[in-house]
Amino acid sequence: MTRIDRNAVEVHGIVKHYGETKALDGVDLAVREGTVLGLLGPNGAGKTTLVRVLSTLIKPDAGTAFVGGYDVLRQPKQLRRTIGLTGQYASVDEALSGYENLYLIGRLLDLSAKDAKARAFELLERFSLTDAAKRPAKGYSGGMRRRLDLAASMIGRPKVLYLDEPTTGLDPRTRNEVWDEVQRMVGEGSTVLLTTQYMEEAEQLADELTVIDKGRVIAGGGIQELKTQVGGQSLQVRPTRPAELPEMARSLQEAGIPATFSEESGLLSVHLTDEGQLTTVIGVLGTRGFGVAGIDTKLPSLDEVFLTITGKSSVPAQARDKEPVA
Ligand SMILES: Nc1ncnc2c1ncn2[C@@H]1O[C@H](COP(=O)(O)OP(=O)(O)OP(=O)(O)O)[C@@H](O)[C@H]1O
Ligand SMILES: [Mg+2]
Q: What domains are defined for the chain?
């Protein structure tokens, strides 16, 4: 067995073409054990195709990938025992009740009858499905199916969990439940590969992000890192004496730091292009005796990052992330 050090998922040069369509065109990525990787990309970027390759549901045309140290091509059986998958499209058995769906999966995963029953009830409870537990899933709403699907993927406490747009179509309360559950799984040691169109979701859950478009990785890294790469930081200074704004800006300009100010907001703004500038700004303002009541640094939102990188906005308005303040 090929054990890959500390990376629960490793993808090397995966290619998958459908005729002329390059669904995946040489993708490399890694997910560190016990972390959440957010896989972002516009519609048709190749996210679901990658999840399918990593679940052994389809074979890549080229490249290699390991999950939990198992090779997708050579060790598919072991690999499948390592993973849980919530696909983009629901996969519950419509004729069975919520409870039966979960119980059967538990049994398929070799849990004893008693454990399968207990686990099914536990997950039904966690996903607010207890009341509907005995009803056939065909009568469930979209959100309920989604929750049942998620519960199903968590039955075996998989080491690696793939969540392909897990909260699309869920109301905010249910979305929060799903987020809590994912965080709990990660807290228990699971590794998660999460595809999402919601930047807020990525911001909440992901430790690192990989952005793909047209089957290729176009950016990656930590959330703050990506924001910094794309937009740089903007430093906002609130003076104790707003009348001094023009003078403060002039002093900074003399020190070689482009600064602007707005009388209306009462703020001095400096676009920081490297980290050392923050120290310089504070130094200049201090030595010249300007009073500072507060400072803030602002990063671009993840929406802006996504838009800049892919040239497309993929985010529904209700999921817009709040401006973080560093
Ligand atoms: N079975 C298939 N046959 C033909 N083309 C396919 C097939 N599966 C995916 N594709 C194509 O591959 C590309 C990537 O699709 P994929 O479903 O992986 O994108 P995605 O990033 O998951 O998109 P979305 O955000 O819409 O779910 C698309 O152009 C899609 O039409
Ligand atoms: Mg998809």
A: 7-228 (3.40.50.300), 233-298 (3.30.70.2030)
